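Page 37, continued from 36.
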């Protein structure tokens, strides 16, 4: 693992994804603790540095500096008093600090959907268009690496998998009233062959077979990835 992981994109004036912010803060902590080449004392110093990075990220959202400074000093005192070999206690102090200072983020950002919510909404609305992780990331004003990291942390799967499934689900719906070619085009596939290959891999049959089964009253039976 590398350290530090980037925190700022999860928490700013337009995005308030508190879960992702805390998760990344704890990933930073775990990365510090798993470093075998440093002493327990050095690890503790790096945790204190991480607390400062968290404070800076909160401050950049527009939080009032004085209350934030007081919370930071209280947390710093707790960290300093915690034995260097008690990583569980250090983690608890850091987690409590995150939860406390997140309450100081201005309320104006709290009404903004999380990055994960915006991701799913965007790919649902734009499933008819050619989509890639880079295209979606640009539309959501984040980097592709940040989007990939956020989606993986929340779901355990890469964003490309959800994009693919959403497009295939749209194509499957279109097959009820459209040809295979039309369904592929309406689902953002540039090549019908790609649609057929991915459809077969996902559902275990070709779009043509699926369409014929529907026309014969076979019903819509499939196994797919759920959000």
């Amino acid at each position: 693992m590398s350290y530090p992981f980037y925190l700022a994109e999860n928490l700013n004036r337009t995005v308030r994804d508190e879960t992702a912010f805390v998760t990344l803060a704890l990933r930073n902590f775990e990365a510090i603790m798993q470093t075998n080449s440093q002493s327990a004392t050095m690890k503790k110093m790096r945790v204190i540095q991480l607390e400062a990075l968290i404070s800076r990220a909160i401050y950049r959202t527009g939080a009032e500096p004085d209350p934030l400074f007081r919370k930071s000093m209280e947390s710093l005192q707790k960290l300093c008093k915690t034995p260097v070999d008690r990583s569980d206690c250090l983690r608890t102090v850091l987690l409590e600090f995150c939860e406390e200072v997140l309450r100081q983020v201005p309320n104006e950002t709290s009404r903004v959907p999380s990055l994960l919510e915006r991701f799913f909404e965007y790919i649902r609305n734009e499933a008819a268009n050619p989509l890639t992780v880079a295209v979606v990331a640009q539309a959501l004003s984040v980097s592709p690496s940040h989007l990939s990291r956020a989606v993986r942390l929340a779901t355990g799967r890469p964003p490309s998998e959800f994009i693919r499934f959403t497009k295939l689900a749209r194509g499957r719906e279109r097959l009820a009233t459209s040809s295979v070619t039309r369904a592929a085009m309406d689902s953002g596939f540039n090549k019908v062959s790609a649609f057929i290959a991915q459809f077969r891999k996902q559902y275990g049959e070709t779009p043509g077979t699926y369409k014929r089964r529907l026309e014969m009253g076979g019903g819509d039976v499939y196994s797919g990835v759920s959000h």
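Residues 40-59 form the longest helix (20 residues). Flag for discussion at group meeting. Residues 1-6, 221-227 have pLDDT under 50 and may be disordered.
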